[in-house]
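Supplementary Text 2. Reproducibility record for the structural model of the 263-residue chain.

All settings were left at their defaults, and a single model was retained for analysis rather than an ensemble. We include the record here because the model underlies the residue-level annotations in Supplementary Table 4.
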Amino acid sequence: MDTAARAAPAARAPYAERPSTHVPAVVWTATPAPGPQVILPDGCMDVIWTGEGLLVAGPDTGPVTYGGAPVGARLTALRLAPGVAPSLLGERADLLGDARVDLAALWPGDRVAVWTSALAASPRPDRTLEHLVAARLDERPPPTWAAPLAARMAAGDDVRRTAHDLGLGERTLRRLAREHVGYGPKLLQRVLRLQRTLAALRRGDDPSRVAADEGYADYAHLFRDVRALTGRRPTEFRPVGSGQAGSAAYRSTPLPSGSATEA
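Retained model, structure tokens:
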């Protein structure tokens, strides 16, 4: 679900995450900093409880500015693995690309009311949201090819070979990926590599070494890809004091949608 002010840096917002024990997802909680946030693509979709309502974060294809949660809100969310959310929502992922929409726009009001009431009354909305999503996915399981596709794309495997190994035609796999992930396998591959690349840059790893480790042709290739998917230069993600680091205003904060967020 992810969410850009360019003025003085906001304080790093409290954020925590853990793997879900019930569904293919990461559970995260956050108290966002005030003001708009920039969310970066991560290949996932999120269902977010704001304390007042339920929000769906669609699959991002580039940096998306989110107008901000209610002041003082404590967000609780599931960051669903690639390909899972459409089974939960009953909506194609590519129709929600780069969007943040109320769940009420996708579901009947009575179903949303049941979820909202349960979450509002719960002392542990993270656990409640997990159980609600798990029950829905028991009725509408995600496609069996979704997890293997994500794993193969994360490993940098060839799309044609992946389709063959999954028992699908290449064109069929591309169509299914658009419907369930939000974009084709090659863009999913780039987005998953981007997340690993940004994690390495934030640790302060040498950018040329990161380019080699992640399979880019060279640093220029890494630069172009990071710039295309984030709107930022790779050096802007490096920690302050690690050499050519970006200003504090660009330091990354892992916020809504669990995707990287710029303060």
